[in-house]
TrEMBL record:
This is Uncharacterized protein. Belongs to the GtrA family. It is a multi-pass membrane protein. InterPro entries: GtrA_CellWall_Glycosyl, GtrA_DPMS_TM. Keywords: Membrane, Transmembrane, Transmembrane helix. It is found in: Membrane. GO terms for cellular component: plasma membrane. GO terms for biological process: polysaccharide biosynthetic process. The keyword Transport does not apply.
Length: 140
């Protein structure tokens, strides 16, 4: 259980850093460089996604005694996971809006689904690695 809690805290930390980086890039591109709204957002969200991928692969889901996930496979898996999580976010938000729920709670529910999907998919699918042979680092 400690492993999941540690990974969840690391996941949240990377998420906050990616949000700050993405926002900074958006404002720099839009206000400092004169980029259009779409271009600035693509750059900002792209920077945040790259940081999230690197943070997830190298820190959040990397455990002592485990080989790191291969670069190419984890990048493809991360892109597919992002697409699924983003689609889930949109589906939940749109579905809740159809029930008459106000936008803000509907969007917050969609964002929660996105975050849970990204964490679970990263932990169980994209970055999951078998442990090497040897003594365990985990204490009971």
């Amino acid at each position: 259980m400690r492993q999941i809690a540690r990974q969840a805290l690391r996941f949240a930390t990377v998420g906050v850093l990616a949000t700050l980086l993405g926002g900074a890039v958006i404002f720099w591109a839009r206000l400092g460089m004169g980029a259009g709204l779409l271009a600035a957002n693509v750059l900002g969200y792209g920077a945040g996604l790259v940081l999230t991928f690197l943070g997830s692969r190298l820190w959040v889901f990397r455990e002592p005694g485990a080989e790191p996930a291969p670069w190419a496979g984890s990048a493809v898996g991360f892109a597919a996971l992002f697409a699924a999580a983003f689609a889930s976010n949109l589906a939940v938000t749109a579905g809740l809006l159809q029930t008459g729920l106000a936008y803000v709670p509907a969007q917050l529910a969609g964002m929660a689904i996105y975050s849970v999907t990204m964490f679970a998919g990263g932990r169980l699918l994209v970055f999951a690695r078998p442990l090497r042979e040897g003594p365990s680092d985990e204490r009971p």
